[in-house]
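Deviation from plan, reported transparently: protoporphyrin IX containing FE complex.
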Amino acid sequence: MDVIASTVFGLDVDSQSKTDHPFVEHASTLLGASKKPKGFFAICKQICLIIMLFTFPTSLRVVLANFFGLSFTDQESMKYFNNVIDRLVKERKQNPDSENSKDFVSQCSKKVVDLSQVPKEKVFMSSSGFQWTTEGLTREDFVANSTIFFGAGYETTATALQFFFYNMAVHPNIQQKLYDHLCEELGEDDFSYEQLQRLDYLEWCICESMRMFPPVVRIERLANADTVVNGITIPKGMGVQGLVYVIHHDPDYWPQPEKFDPERFSPENKTEIQQYAWLPFGAGGRSCIANRLAMLEMKIAVAKAMLSLQFERVAATKDPAEIKQKPAAAFFLPKDPILISAVSRSSF
Ligand code: HEM
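Because the crystal trials were delayed, the predicted structure below was used instead.
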């Protein structure tokens, strides 16, 4: 949550210690975390709906929000983020060279145009009825692109981390090897970006964990020309899905695919990995915009957690983990909550 707040909105919210910060409360409301738990797909549907609603005029927004059954608190949260975005855009415009101007909102706010000031021949209508222009971003483009980061960046990283710690708990030898590696490279003090770059074994473990449990199970593309693949014709305009989970568990690409083996990603073995066989962040020009940020976030979270905690299986830990796979679902979830224990290393 803190990473999204600072990289996207330029806000320092410290969600771990200030759980009553309005940003945390409203983001939790939109993600469904403040109510009874929701499935990942339901959360993403809610975020898409909220993005749509953010971009309608206020009067229509209230009618639509009521129609779709968004609660009063959801609407309050939408209002909060709308106000935050308006305030930040105003602040950044007044003070474009400030220290805070590296975040996504600041970068985009420089490109926002007032459609009423754009020549009519440069304003177009999308098939879904939204106006857009080649002259810059509309306010709607801007709000939608800022808020999508909650859906794309928050749960994906959280899902990757929960399966990572699960893998550590059920593979104690690998956990010990990683712990020794972290102690050797980092020591006990805080660590630097350069030190994190040297943590090869940590990277292999994260890559292998995302191979076994990719947070996004499929990616999608539209064919922009008639194409023949393995004798099958894909006509122009047809939607095609790449089944990431299936590819990651295909023995043709990954010998013993159900074995958790970080060594697959060592420099000696990595050359055996076929191009496009490892796809947790997708591939090509529309791959994850933030894969480096996500890797960095996960390395920091894992290194901090593992230096002070040891993860262990408990009686209720399922091994192998049972996963929930619905044909249309894009996101990967455990069938039941993952249960492991975290024991403080200071108690040893
Ligand atoms: C472990 C964490 C993450 C995973 C596994 C992940 C995975 C993905 C995948 C599979 C895609 C679709 C790629 C494709 O179709 O080829 C995607 C797109 C995207 N991701 Fe991530 N992601 C993660 C973290 C993040 C974070 C932290 C952010 C932002 C702060 C983010 C922002 C985005 C955006 C904006 C897109 C759409 C890119 C586009 O359409 O051009 N992701 N991500």
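The chain has two domains: 2-153, 159-347. We consider this an acceptable substitute for the interim report.
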